[in-house]
Amino acid sequence: MPEAIRAGSGIKRSTPRRARLLAIVSGSGVVLSGGCARASALSSSLDGLAFAFAALGGHEIAQLALTLGAIGFAVSTAIMLVRARARWAQDLAGARTENAALRAELDQAMALLGAEPQVLVVWPAAGDDEPQIIGDTRLVAAVPFPRRVLAFGTWLRPDLAQLMEEAVANLRARGEGFAMPLTSLGGRHLEAEGRAIGGRAILRLRDVSGARRALAELTAAHRKLLADIEPLRTLIEAVPAPMWARESDGRIKWVNAAYARAVEAKDAADAVARQLELLERSAREDLDRARALGQSYAKRMPVIVAGRRCVVDVLDVPAETGSAGIGIDVTEAEAMRAELVRMMEAHRRTLDQLPTAVAIFTAKQRLAFCNTAYRQLWGLDPAFLDQEPTDSAILERLRAERKLPEQADFRQWRNQLFEAYRALEPREHWWHLPDGRTLRVVTTPNPEGGVTYVFDDVTKQLELERRYDALIRVQGETLDNLAEAVAVFGSDGRLRLFNPAFTGMWRISPALLADRPHIENVIELCRPLYGNPDFWQSLRAAITGLETRESLSRRLERNDGSVIDCATVPLPDGATLVTLQDVTDTVNFERALRERNDALEAADVLKNDFIHHVSYELRTPLTNIIGFAHLLHDDAIGPLTEKQREYLGYISSSSAALLAIINDILDLASIDAGAMQLDLGPVDIRKTIDAAAEGVRDRIAEHGLRLDIRTPADIGSFIADERRVRQILFNLLSNAIAFSSPGSTIVLAAERRPDAVVLSVIDHGRGIPEEIIDRVFDRFETHSLGSQHRGAGLGLSIVRSFVELHGGTVSLKSVEGEGTTVTCVFPVEQTTKRIAAE
To answer: Is pLDDT at 21 greater than 80 in this prediction?
Structure first.
């Protein structure tokens, strides 16, 4: 307090400072008293006060505090006033907005009320007789009445007016609502409805004249619609396909008679009452989902119709209150479709087996089918054909590959070909392809549109026709120039073909045969030269016979001395070929040959008899000579001089050679007589070869030759006559020694094959001339070929006969100046032959 007083006294003493403070406070008060100063101005004032406090002394603070308290109160009051004014402004804006919304709602309500021809009468309180009338009163009265007066008697009949007054009175007094129809004096139809709402009585008068007229019109339209629908209803009931209608929840609300029969119900009402379903559960669930989405449901499915499994096309269409559906029985159509598919597949398989190329194009000129022959004919890529290319694309590709006929104007040619798509009849084209083939192309229009191409490769057919024509011409020329007479008679017995030799042989004028006479007439023309009736009867039967058509062969000795061979041949077409050949010269020559043959056979018999007789007659004294010669070689008889011994050697060798010849002759005679038999048994090949070589070893040494035996160690054995095999080898070696040059080598080889044993003798002598090779195996055929050898010519003949008796073969290969090779092949399995080749 003293400090405040001091401050107060200080204030008086500090006049300049006080003046500054007052100026600041007054400035701040002006700012606060304005009420509309901003916070920034207030902040700056406070900053100024703080600065002033800092400038004042202690004795001035008390005075300043009192001043600031007053200023604070003023400031608080000003702030509260500002906030209140802002709130009042917001409340005023909200009220204005609410008022505008209420006005809009009121205008909307009035518009709604005015949209319908009606009048509203509102009594606000029970004791207030002045109602508020809303609406155009001209709707209920001819002349508008005041808004606060409702005089029922002015626009209603008295009785109706009284009823209305009583009803209004009860409504206002007790809140009893009512509703009654009225007819005004102006003829308007009204509907009066009274209600108590929120303590107010409200009467609504609505003009229903238009609604009544509309109702009448609707009733008339309904009756007309019923009349129009009745035939449709009758038709639906008569439709054999099940039909139904469902509620939105899927329950059946109507079915036709066909549906009732399908589910085996008494009638449609029974089917609806029992909710008998035609479709399976899964189908109904799909149908419900489609109906929920507002979509139609269409599907082909199997169902049981009256105890019979059928295929049905189900169609269910959604409606506002549910859906309606129908099930069309397509069992027969499905069966026919399946049968059609099987038939088409069968046709496709059949067409694939045909050698004729077939291609079917649709009405849009796209490939629908082609068989295997078509692919092979054109060599097109299967992947390209599987894409169903157009007819034009295929032609373009074939043209690019030069597989189509060359055309000067390809576009025009193609357009002419495509006229088949608009044609009514099939057309035929001939295509001559660059590769030399010829195609017969037939384009056939399809009933459903499109074209079927048939490509027939007639190249071979045309070639056959050309060959046939050429063959016919050649045959005609051949027949005309044959020396043999030819005539062809048809199945009717008439002459169809003859050549000039026929007319010349029977001395008939061709003009008489030009009219194709019957066989009877031809026989009469030929009878003068040959009158045997049996032959002509047989010929007639061979030509005209129905039951049997056998060939006829006869030799005719005609009256003129000529001999004719006649033969008939049945032809496949029922005709008969008659051939006549003049064999007069042949018969005469044959007779001469027969006579000569008989003479030769007699001579051969005489020769054989002579050979046999001589052989046997010579063998006995020869045996004696050989025996005595061997006896003379024995020293026990007595000594011989060298000259005697030399002569005795000549006698022995000559006797032995003569005995060998006689033995060969006897063997050949036995073979010819069929009396030769082989003594078959196992033959050791190596042993037999060595035995044959031992028999000629002296002669080999005498001629200065070498013998080379070539046999494998495991050559083994085979079944044969060992003595005859040894004789074969001995004869071959003897022949090789005789024709070999001194110092050369003779090879005796043996080879074993899976099915045969091969023995061969090879010499390196002079060889055999080519003109003699074919005769070296003949009997008594001998050629010295410049050597000193002079045999009987039986060695090789004996070899061939013995080898063939064993079932084998003999071959000879010789080259002049190089030598000769004789090969004998013996089969491993022996089959004895009794007759040798000549």
So the answer is: no
